[in-house]
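Entry 12.
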Amino acid sequence: MENKVHVISLGGSIIVPDDVDTDFLKSFDKALRGYLAEEPESRLIFVCGGGATARKYQRAYRGILGEMQADEKPEALDWIGIMATRLNAELMRQLFLDLCPQKTVTNPEEVHLFAGRVMVAAGWKPGFSTDYDAVILAEKFHARMVINLSNIEQAYTADPKVEPNARPIKRTTWSAFRKLVGDKWIPGINVPFDPVASRRAEEAGLTVVIANGRKLDNLLAILKGRDYIGTTIVPD
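Predicted 3D structure (tokens):
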């Protein structure tokens, strides 16, 4: 039987763009519950990012220590961000508690059972973002795709805020995408998909879709295998 586990890496910028976006979370809850009701064989894994909460606390740390000294302690910045992801994830788990009997996953290598219809995960340890955790969980539960939701429609050939000639990318390969994002993880780095996670996803032969998380009809189209707007990254 076809595996119907879908992994959604839910960017913190969607959950907490400034304050917690309760209107979005209500809509997300309704849309995904509707999907699960229509697709009784499907299960969903939500991996939550840190969003504005992480950025505020990391900024406070930098303000206290000074930029240069704080940047010399990337693990500290990562741990601050990780704790923000765990707060966001616990909020998400409580929203889906009737479908999510497991505690929030904070170490994707230690979870071996998917007990309900929904699993919620958060940051694990320094050195990468929650995108990497999403890739591990996709491997572990045999999902073929990670859906990466953030506040952008698609990945671009360059940062469109800096490069006016940047073009949206509809479909690309891992080798081409990794040239864009590089190999180095920096806490708070602004890339469509974490460089460390990209390397592991390439090695695992996964497909990743980058899409705008606020467009829930588009998310449902991705889940149902219909046409959608986004960037699809496939194995070479």
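Annotation: The chain has one domain: 5-234. The domain at 5-234 is CATH 3.40.1160.10 (Carbamate kinase).
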